[in-house]
């Protein structure tokens, strides 16, 4: 008798355990090496514009979220194979990526890409050897142009290549480069003309995950409507006016 | 960690360094040393197990075992490590999830493969999405351990197979002349003498294993090289402890650490080699 009760009790516990699981945890994937979009802060946690935005979006969509970091290189394959459920990693919405994954509408406007070279270089630096991060819109852009592209796994490596003369300049999102140029103490400077490539930055989700996409879509729309997205962008990107 | 660390912008010199080196990120860095060392310690028994199984399978009189042993050692040794490290954990992870999916969500209407997507039901996820981060990390660590064990086990199998063949035949025949059974000969004569021939190969393998541990990052485990790169990268004013590109310093530290580890291992292997050689029918055993 007691044994059956025990069994029934165990079954009940098991049942309630499954219902806890049903309240999904959304795993948010990011790179953690692209300040101010996302980076690992001194405590060892994911931080940055996308961290704050993602947490707010999860709150509005009443989702329980945790953050995971993944190499930029394999960030899309690991989303597709289900290691995490979203990508928020300063990823521009492009037609090429859209074939593999789905995007929400943009949460950061299309940002011009800029060239950075050692201080004193002229615009010809943008025509020589240009460093770019692998699998970015900038790498694709340079490969199409007359300049020679050298690809690196991280943003940090592309900057190091310019500093030690391996590349004449680096092409990346203006906002990410600005941080680095400001911190370089005059060693690095913007050169040449900015180029406009790619769309805005959006959140990537699996194509089969329509429901999750819609939830985040609604959350982004509500943040655009009440102006809190503009405020957050201004906070992280030196008062930039996004105008959503 | 220390009281004066609340505002790193105001401090400098020794205080700055003590705060910098004890911030959360550095703690993760120190912890990753433990992760790497425990991976090394944990894989060794498995490597030896796989090695022995492979070597004995290759010596088996039963043909299918022999084929299995030969295929295992030649196939795994022939495929580049990096491909194996990418393949094994992904294949295992997805295999486990498919099995769990079949058991737990048999009424799931949609296919698992939807275009590019690999989709299993929430309850079949391994580990569950709702599990704490450490569960995910431990799971990744286990997959890594198995991948390392399979790859290095194949090399160990070859070494042990060779060592078993190198024991002088006369030794075994003497055992038989004394009336020992096949099992007794193997346990009391063949196996103890085998080690002397296997150790140089196995110690090589251990050194290579130490040096291969940075491959852990490929498997999603945040190892010492990952943290060194992350910490050494230049930090802008957004960080509490801004600095330039310090990767060289961090990598130099890793260099010292790895050299120390291999030096220590070499000492250790010299010792057991000396011990095992005593009284053996080899040149080293004569002295």
Quick structural gist:
The complex is a heterodimer of chains A (244) and B (287). Chain A is of the alpha/beta class. Chain A has helices at 2-22, 49-60, 75-80, 95-100, 137-144, 155-163, 174-183, 210-225, 228-236, and strands at residues 25-30, 33-34, 38-40, 46-47, 64-69, 86-87, 102-103, 113-118, 129-133, 148-152, 169-173, 188-195, 204-205.
The low-confidence runs of chain B, each spanning 5 or more residues with pLDDT under 50, are none
- Beta-strand segment tally of chain A: 13
Overall structural class of chain A, as computed from helix and strand content, comes to alpha/beta
Proper CATH architecture of the largest domain in chain A: 3-Layer(aba) Sandwich
CATH architecture of chain B: Orthogonal Bundle
List the strand order in the largest sheet of chain A: 5-1-6-13-7
**Radius of gyration of chain B in whole Å, from Cα?**
25 Å
**Percent helix among the residues of chain B?**
over 70%
In this structure, how is the largest beta sheet of chain B organized? 2 strands, antiparallel
Mean pLDDT of chain B: 89
User: Do you know the CATH topology of the largest domain in chain A?
Assistant: D-Maltodextrin-Binding Protein, domain 2
Average pLDDT over all residues of chain A:
86
Query: What do we call the CATH homologous superfamily of the largest domain in chain A?
Result: Periplasmic binding protein-like II
Number of domains of chain A: 2
Task: Kindly state the percentage of residues in helix of chain A.
Answer: 25-40%
Uncertain ranges of chain A: 1-22
Principal-axis shape of chain B equals flat
Describe the largest sheet of chain A: 5 strands, mixed
Write down the CATH class of chain B.
Answer: Mainly Alpha
**Assembly state here?**
heterodimer
């Amino acid at each position: 008798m007691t044994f059956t009760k025990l069994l029934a009790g165990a079954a009940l516990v098991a049942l309630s355990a499954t219902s806890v699981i049903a309240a999904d945890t959304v795993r948010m994937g990011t790179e953690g090496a692209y300040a101010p979009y996302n980076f690992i802060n001194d405590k060892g946690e994911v931080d940055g514009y996308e961290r704050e935005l993602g947490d707010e979006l999860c709150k509005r969509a009443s989702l329980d979220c945790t953050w995971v970091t993944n190499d930029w290189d394999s960030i899309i394959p690991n989303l597709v194979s289900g290691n995490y459920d979203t990508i928020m990693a300063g990823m521009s919405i492009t037609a090429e990526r859209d074939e593999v994954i789905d995007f929400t509408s943009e949460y950061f406007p299309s940002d011009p890409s800029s060239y950075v070279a050692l201080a004193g270089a002229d615009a010809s630096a943008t025509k020589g050897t240009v460093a770019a991060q692998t699998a970015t819109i900038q790498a694709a852009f340079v490969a199409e142009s007359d300049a020679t592209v050298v690809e690196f796994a991280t943003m940090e490596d592309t900057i190091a290549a310019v500093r030690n003369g391996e590349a004449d300049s680096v092409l990346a999102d203006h906002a990410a480069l600005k941080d680095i140029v400001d911190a370089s103490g005059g060693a690095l400077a913007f050169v040449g003309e900015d180029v406009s490539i790619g769309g805005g930055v959006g959140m990537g989700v699996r194509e089969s995950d329509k429901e999750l996409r819609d939830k985040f879509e609604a959350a982004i729309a509500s943040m655009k409507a009440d102006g809190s997205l503009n405020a957050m962008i201004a906070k992280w990107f030196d008062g930039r006016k996004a105008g959503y | 960690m220390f009281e004066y660390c609340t505002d790193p912008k105001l401090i400098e010199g020794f205080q700055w360094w003590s705060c910098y080196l004890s911030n959360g990120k550095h703690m993760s860095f120190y912890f990753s040393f433990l992760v790497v060392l425990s991976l090394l310690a944990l894989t060794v028994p498995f490597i030896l197990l796989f090695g022995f199984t492979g070597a004995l399978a290759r010596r088996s009189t039963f043909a299918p075992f022999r084929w299995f042993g030969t295929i295992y050692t030649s196939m795994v040794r022939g495929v580049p490590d990096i491909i194996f490290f990418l393949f094994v954990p992904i294949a295992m992870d997805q295999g486990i999830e498919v099995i769990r999916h079949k058991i737990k969500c048999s009424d799931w209407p949609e296919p698992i493969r939807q275009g590019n997507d690999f989709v299993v039901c929430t309850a079949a996820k391994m580990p569950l999405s709702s599990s704490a981060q450490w569960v995910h990390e431990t799971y990744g660590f286990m997959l890594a351990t198995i991948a390392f064990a399979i790859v290095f086990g194949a090399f160990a199998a070859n070494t042990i197979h060779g060592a078993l063949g190198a024991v002088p035949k006369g030794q075994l025949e003497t055992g038989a002349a004394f009336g020992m059974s096949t099992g007794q000969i193997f346990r009391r004569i063949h196996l103890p003498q085998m080690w002397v021939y296997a150790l140089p190969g196995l110690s090589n393998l251990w050194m290579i294993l130490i040096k291969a541990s940075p491959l852990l990052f490929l498997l999603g485990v945040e190892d010492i090289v990952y943290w060194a790169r992350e910490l050494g990268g230049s930090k802008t004013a957004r960080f509490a402890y801004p600095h330039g590109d310090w990767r060289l310093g961090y990598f130099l530290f890793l260099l010292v650490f790895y050299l120390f580890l291999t030096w220590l291992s070499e000492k250790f292997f010299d010792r057991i080699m000396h011990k095992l050689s005593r009284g053996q029918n080899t040149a080293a055993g004569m002295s």
